[in-house]
Amino acid sequence: MQLMMYIGNDHIESVSLDKEKISKPGYLGTFKRSLKMKYKDLISQYGSPADFIIVNMDGGANKASAKESETGNTNLKYQQL
User: Fold this and answer.
1) Hey, CA dihedral for 29, 24, 11, 74, is it positive or negative?
2) Around 10, how many Cα atoms within 13 Å sit in the side-chain half-sphere?
3) What is the pLDDT of residues 39-52, one digit of tens each?
4) Phi (first) and psi of residue 77, to 5 degrees
5) What domain range is 54 assigned to?
6) Count of domains for the chain
Protein backbone atom coordinates (compact mmCIF):
# COMPACT_ATOMS: atom_id res chain seq x y z
CA MET A 1 0.00 0.00 0.00
CA GLN A 2 1.12 3.50 -0.77
CA LEU A 3 0.26 6.86 0.76
CA MET A 4 0.35 9.38 -2.08
CA MET A 5 0.55 13.13 -1.58
CA TYR A 6 -0.93 15.49 -4.14
CA ILE A 7 -1.07 19.24 -4.36
CA GLY A 8 -3.70 20.22 -6.88
CA ASN A 9 -3.32 17.72 -9.72
CA ASP A 10 0.40 17.17 -9.12
CA HIS A 11 1.68 13.98 -7.48
CA ILE A 12 4.40 15.03 -5.06
CA GLU A 13 5.57 11.85 -3.31
CA SER A 14 4.52 8.30 -2.37
CA VAL A 15 5.39 6.44 0.81
CA SER A 16 5.10 2.68 1.35
CA LEU A 17 2.79 1.62 4.17
CA ASP A 18 2.50 -1.50 6.30
CA LYS A 19 -1.01 -2.82 5.59
CA GLU A 20 -1.28 -4.30 9.08
CA LYS A 21 -0.67 -0.92 10.76
CA ILE A 22 -3.12 1.19 8.73
CA SER A 23 -5.83 1.00 11.41
CA LYS A 24 -3.39 1.89 14.22
CA PRO A 25 -4.16 5.40 15.52
CA GLY A 26 -1.50 7.90 14.49
CA TYR A 27 0.22 5.66 11.93
CA LEU A 28 -0.91 7.58 8.84
CA GLY A 29 -0.69 10.91 10.64
CA THR A 30 3.03 10.41 11.20
CA PHE A 31 3.66 10.12 7.47
CA LYS A 32 1.30 12.95 6.59
CA ARG A 33 2.94 15.35 9.07
CA SER A 34 6.37 14.43 7.78
CA LEU A 35 5.38 15.03 4.15
CA LYS A 36 3.65 18.32 4.98
CA MET A 37 6.76 19.57 6.77
CA LYS A 38 9.05 18.41 3.98
CA TYR A 39 6.99 20.24 1.34
CA LYS A 40 5.69 23.19 3.40
CA ASP A 41 7.22 25.74 1.01
CA LEU A 42 5.64 24.04 -1.99
CA ILE A 43 2.26 23.87 -0.24
CA SER A 44 2.39 27.58 0.57
CA GLN A 45 3.30 28.41 -3.05
CA TYR A 46 0.28 26.50 -4.38
CA GLY A 47 -2.06 28.14 -1.89
CA SER A 48 -4.14 24.97 -1.62
CA PRO A 49 -3.95 22.18 0.97
CA ALA A 50 -2.23 18.88 0.33
CA ASP A 51 -4.42 15.89 -0.49
CA PHE A 52 -3.59 12.31 0.46
CA ILE A 53 -4.76 9.07 -1.08
CA ILE A 54 -4.06 5.49 -0.04
CA VAL A 55 -3.64 3.05 -2.90
CA ASN A 56 -3.37 -0.72 -2.64
CA MET A 57 -0.68 -1.67 -5.15
CA ASP A 58 -0.69 -5.36 -4.17
CA GLY A 59 -2.85 -6.38 -7.12
CA GLY A 60 -5.62 -7.85 -4.96
CA ALA A 61 -9.25 -8.00 -6.03
CA ASN A 62 -10.35 -5.31 -3.57
CA LYS A 63 -8.71 -1.93 -3.41
CA ALA A 64 -9.38 0.74 -0.84
CA SER A 65 -8.50 4.37 -1.06
CA ALA A 66 -8.89 7.23 1.34
CA LYS A 67 -8.58 10.81 0.29
CA GLU A 68 -8.04 13.35 3.02
CA SER A 69 -7.51 17.04 2.64
CA GLU A 70 -5.57 19.14 5.11
CA THR A 71 -8.91 20.14 6.66
CA GLY A 72 -9.25 16.61 8.01
CA ASN A 73 -12.19 15.45 5.91
CA THR A 74 -11.75 11.84 4.89
CA ASN A 75 -13.61 10.04 2.14
CA LEU A 76 -13.03 6.29 2.15
CA LYS A 77 -14.20 4.24 -0.77
CA TYR A 78 -13.79 0.62 -1.71
CA GLN A 79 -13.61 -0.55 -5.26
CA GLN A 80 -14.24 -4.06 -6.52
CA LEU A 81 -11.92 -4.75 -9.47
Assistant:
1) negative
2) 9
3) 999 999 998 899 99
4) -135, 145
5) 2-80
6) 1
